[in-house]
Amino acid sequence: MSLLYDMPLFRPPSEGDNLIIQATLGCSFNQCSFCAMYRSKQYVERPLNEVFADIRTAAADWPDAQRVFLADGDALALPTEHLLAILRELATALPRLTRVSCYATPGNLARKSIEELAQLREHKLNLLYFGIESGSDLILKKITKGATQQRMAEVLHKAKDSGMKVSATVILGLGGTQHSDAHIDGTIDLLNRAPVTYLSTLQLYLDESVEEEFHRKFGEPFQMPDDLAILQEQHRLISGLNPPQPVIFRSNHASNALALAGNLPKDKDKLLQQLQEAIAGHRPLRPLFMRGL
Fold first, then answer.
1. Fewer CB atoms < 10 Å away: N or C end of the chain?
2. Could you give the C-alpha distances from 87 to 55, 77, 79, 117, in angstroms and in order?
């Protein structure tokens, strides 16, 4: 019997080959103006008996699974004891399990203590996918992220102190052409004082279902940056980064005009050189028809 998912189902690109278990449905915040992922769903904490049944079904099909992603939008919103029960069931059903991961919002990270996070990590929930989007308070307000730069710095330090790894994302172009500098400079400021393990950049894409809301909440005319402006943002971002710990950096998401990969700060010069070549027209960009979310 195959596992049946409540669609739509989303997961980070790096979780594409891993087992997915829906611990929750939807997103408990679901107000970010740029995000269309869970607009068709109401947030629901799935009963443990349903989640356990899914785990048993999945284990029968894939008994050697080693990595599990807990969907939907932010399983970390679940009470800690609820999450621990799921993690224990996973460990029992999947004897080769090495890692469990999930999305995390600033709000549900803030509501967990360091001790709770450490307890979850001990039960193999050790990687959190965290959408920074921007480090600029101006942009965070315009996109209704529900957090400030300071709050995000606090919860990222909390995750680090608990032993969790964080895979963070930044969305290039989110400030439009008029607030590009503020968007990137605020993001540099945040990343230079808040520890993350992995960092990825995405290029802004607005689904037509949220375009009107995004423009209305932005509060002023929004002009979408072109590829050249995005490359210049990326160059400004990487130039300014001096993270508190080494960071594995990627911009290989399908939305990006230019795929980059390296470690920061070690590969900063190499990445900047590749960007300079692309800006000058000497390095090809990903064709539009090959981009998407």
1. N
2. 10, 15, 13, 13
**Separation of alpha carbons 83 and 48, rounded Å:** 9
Contacts 24+ apart (CB under 8 A), 272-281: 272/235, 272/238, 272/239, 275/231, 275/234, 275/235, 275/238, 276/235, 278/231, 279/228, 279/231, 279/232, 279/235
For residues 247 and 196, the answer to whether their CB atoms sit within 8 Å is yes
The residues with which 99 forms a beta bridge, in sequence order, are 67
CATH of the domain at 145: 3.20.20.70
pTM to 2 decimal places: 0.96
The number of domains in the chain is: 1
Assigned domain for 2 exists? no
Domain residues for the domain of 128 are: 15-286
In a domain, 9, yes or no: no
Residue found by looking up tokens 């193999």 in the block:
124
What is the tens place of the pLDDT at every residue in 136-182? 999 999 999 999 999 999 999 999 999 999 999 999 999 999 999 99
- Give the tokens for residue 229: 């402006």
Does any domain span residue 194?
yes
Which one, of 233, 256, 30, lies nearest residue 136 by Cα? 233
